[in-house]
Amino acid sequence: MSQDREESAMMNLLRRGYGAIFYENWPIWLGGVLLGIMSVITFAWARPWGVVGGLRNWGDWFFKVIGLYSQAPVSPLISTNSLIVLGLLWGSFASALLSKQFAIRMAPPFELLKGAVGGILMGIGAAMAGGCNVGGFYSAIGALSLSGIAMMIGLIMGAYLGLRYVYWELEHVATGSAGGSVTSASGKGLNLLAVEPYLGFLALLAAIVFTWVYADMALTREGVLALCGVAIGIIIQRTRLCFVRAFRDPFMTGEAEVPRAVAISIIIVILGSAALKWTGLRGEMVYVPQAFWFGGLVGGIIFGFGMVIAGGCGSGSVWRAGEGQIKLMLAVVFFSITVSLVERAIDASKALTALMGNRVFLPHFIGYRWAIISLIAILLLYYVITTWNEKTEKFMVEM
After folding, report:
1. CA nearest 383: which of 243, 265, 259, 245?
2. Prior bond of 293 cis (ω within 30°)
3. What are phi and psi of 183, to 5 degrees?
4. Which residues have C-beta within 8 Å of that of residue 117, sequence separation ≥ 6?
């Protein structure tokens, strides 16, 4: 009898632990810390975390298949850019299953159109800025690139303009704010919600097997990067960390939880990346986009507007697509296609390439110490201002 009670207590303890991990959202600040650590790990292992490179790889393959491009890109199953995004998508999918949050979520036609338009705008902005909210802003600042600050300013401006449009839409477009229907995972027969955690476990097991197979094929670097992407997908999905909120919320609700988490996360990346570059373990110009200042600023404005319209940034669109949101799936598709075309056009034109700007690695001008201090000071200022705004609501935009 005592043994039965002990087993029952153990099962209850395991259930509560599982619920705390997968049924309750993790603190957003924890997501920022874990994301920063994982970003440094991926950089130390092979390359910084990024999204737009993988999406461009997918777009390049699409245009090669339909005959628009003559030269085939690196296979999406080999490209490190692609694999880390595939890992992000798979990790968010597995996490959504484990937390019983996966469902095919349809949206009204107008919202689907906004997903496509938002994806197109994000593709244009990312091509100009040399990356999306990750590569052009998050990892770029972490890499001590001045273009990351230019894109940060652009994202703030674009998010403000995007929110102004959303408010205008709510007042003038009847179908703009309609909610999407949800295809429930439970039915009258088999209760899919009950088996989703088991499917999620199988999805995680498949990711581990994938890495094992790649290691056996002498592709350990690629397999581990994909697994890092899976970990990032789980972290973002469980914390609901989306960069849209980092730039939109101060104007819409005044909340500063996500801006603070993003600022902390980037500071971790700055310290880790600076150590890797200063010691010579990684090249100094890695992830320093050729986009200061025009490409970073203007591209950031376009991207920021697009991500608010779509309802998800580059990484946010991918992990929400992993949860089954059709609108964000469309955003990812159009983002991928657009960034491929626009980047190709920029690369083919010396004038456009020059217009985007230069690669500015701050330590080349002010040294590592002052570069780190300056960037961290900017992020702490952002932290303080958004926290002050949370209390005063000075920057909130009224409808």
Report:
1. 259
2. yes
3. -85, 105
4. 306, 309, 310, 334
Structural domain boundaries, residue 259 = 27-392
What is the helix (H) or strand (E) element at residue 290, kind and residue range? strand 290-292
Backbone angles phi, psi at 26, to 5 degrees: -75, 155
Q: Examine residue 263 and state whether it is found in any structural domain, yes or no.
A: yes
Tell whether 40 is covered by a domain.
Answer: yes
Say how far apart CA 289 and CA 45 lie, in whole Å.
21
Torsion of CA 14, 17, 18, 24, to 10 degrees: 160
Q: Return the closest-CA partner of residue 132 out of 273, 342, 328, 303.
A: 303
Region at 180 (left for phi over 0; alpha for psi -120 to 50; beta for the rest): beta
Tokens found for residue 396: 């909130």
**How many other CB atoms are found less than 10 A from the CB of residue 124?**
21
| Domain count for the chain | 1
Would you say 317 and 335 are in contact if contact means Cβ atoms under 8 Å apart? Answer: yes
Please check whether residue 362 lies inside any domain of the structure. yes
H-helix or E-strand containing 19? Answer: none
Q: What is the three-class DSSP state of 329? A: helix
* pLDDT by position in tens, the chain (length 399): 566 666 677 778 888 888 889 999 999 999 999 999 999 999 999 999 999 999 999 999 999 999 999 999 999 999 999 999 999 999 999 999 999 999 999 999 999 999 999 999 999 999 999 999 999 999 999 999 999 999 999 999 999 999 999 999 999 987 644 444 455 444 444 567 889 999 999 999 999 999 999 999 999 999 999 999 999 999 999 999 999 999 999 999 999 999 999 999 999 999 999 999 999 999 999 999 999 999 999 999 999 999 999 999 999 999 999 999 999 999 999 999 999 999 999 999 999 999 999 999 999 999 999 999 999 999 999 999 999 999 999 999 987
Q: Could you tell me the two tokens for 150?
A: 């230019």
**Cβ contacts of residue 198 below 8 Å, gap of 6+?**
none
Give me the half-sphere count of Cα atoms (radius 13 Å) on the Cβ side of residue 259.
26
Kindly state whether residue 21 falls inside one of the protein's structural domains.
no
